[in-house]
Task: inverse folding
């Protein structure tokens, strides 16, 4: 079963071909991030326009790289939401047109749930598990019982983890996306005596809050302008420790042996290191996808599309993108 995955929810236009949800045949991606960098964040109209120009070449490239043609595709999976409406519309409309032309079904997938499926391309998922989704727009901790059964345990009440990096980076005069820039600057120092606070929402809460870190970062930059690298280090440590704390709390409440990480922030080496450390301490397995599948891609979309297809989920030609698509809903 060969699934063509299409991703266009934000600033990456991506296509991939995946067999049986696990075997990656080819992947292709065009990013408009460099254009948005000038504005310090993604400009929705610009993203949508770039998707319309990139989508066909990206799909043609992936077919060519796999040595296949469109008649070898058995189903099309596409990110249905959440995301930017104009951006999603390009992917969804293209997916429907392609599928209609080839007489194959279309399966809509949830972008964040798809991020978790970057792990399925590495090895079969071991259920039940915890999933930690950390991206530029979302921070969610989920109990993942089996394919299609996810319960959200905790979410951010304000900024997402990636957003904390992006806003902190902007305050430090670094470019967008800020995560990799903060990580690079933080790596130039060994440690710091500077401390940034982690919001405490009560010991029973598995929610996150990152807006306070942003304000504290700005204050620190003003009071200690010559300690930029140390501030980057403290910012990274604060965000990562908030994530570790809630995963650790969830592990004490739910009987799971596996934790799966996903989303752009998972590319962060400090987070990877601290999560693996937690895994050793708590005797659980921590799974982190290769960095190239942590950020937006279509392989994860094709993988989840396959599993949804096996459960009979199909998109109708009348379906439109689901901009606010709650995680856990099918
Ligand atoms: O999942 P993603 O590619 O896009 C969505 O938001 O859906 O995540 C992008 C986010 C950005 O906020 C970016 O700054 C962050 O992931 N990010 C990182 C790193 N690489 C990307 N954050 C920290 N460290 C990194 N190395
Ligand atoms: Zn994403």
Result:
């Amino acid at each position: 079963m060969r699934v063509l995955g299409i991703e266009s929810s934000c600033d990456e236009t991506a296509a991939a071909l995946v067999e049986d949800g696990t075997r990656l045949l080819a992947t292709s991606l065009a990013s408009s991030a460099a254009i948005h960098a000038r504005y310090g964040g993604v400009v929705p109209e610009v993203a949508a326009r770039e998707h319309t120009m990139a989508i066909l070449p990206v799909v043609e490239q992936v077919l060519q790289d796999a040595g296949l043609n469109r008649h070898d595709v058995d189903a099309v999976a596409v990110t249905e939401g959440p995301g930017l409406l104009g951006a999603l519309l390009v992917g969804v409309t293209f997916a429907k047109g392609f599928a209609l032309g080839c007489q194959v079904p279309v399966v809509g997938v949830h972008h964040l749930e798809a991020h978790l499926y970057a792990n399925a391309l590495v090895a079969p998922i071991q259920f039940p598990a915890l999933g930690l989704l950390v991206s530029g727009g979302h921070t969610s901790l989920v109990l993942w019982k089996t394919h299609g059964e996810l319960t959200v345990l905790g979410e951010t009440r304000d900024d997402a983890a990636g957003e904390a990096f992006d806003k902190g980076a902007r305050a430090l005069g670094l470019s967008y996306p800020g995560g990799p820039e903060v990580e690079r600057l933080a790596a130039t120092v060994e440690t710091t005596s500077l401390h940034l606070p982690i919001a405490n929402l009560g010991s029973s809460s598995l929610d996150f809050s990152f807006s306070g870190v942003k304000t504290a970062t700005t204050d620190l930059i003003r009071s200690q302008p010559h300690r930029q690298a140390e501030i980057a280090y403290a910012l990274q440590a604060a965000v990562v420790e908030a994530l570790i704390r809630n995963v650790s709390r969830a592990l004490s409440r739910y009987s799971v042996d596996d934790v799966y990480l996903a989303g752009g922030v998972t590319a962060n080496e400090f987070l990877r290191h601290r999560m693996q450390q937690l895994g050793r301490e708590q005797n659980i397995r921590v799974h982190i996808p290769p960095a190239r599948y942590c950020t937006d891609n279509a392989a994860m979309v094709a993988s989840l599309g396959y599993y949804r297809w096996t459960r009979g989920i199909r998109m109708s030609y009348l379906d439109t993108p689901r901009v606010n698509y709650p995680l856990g809903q099918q």
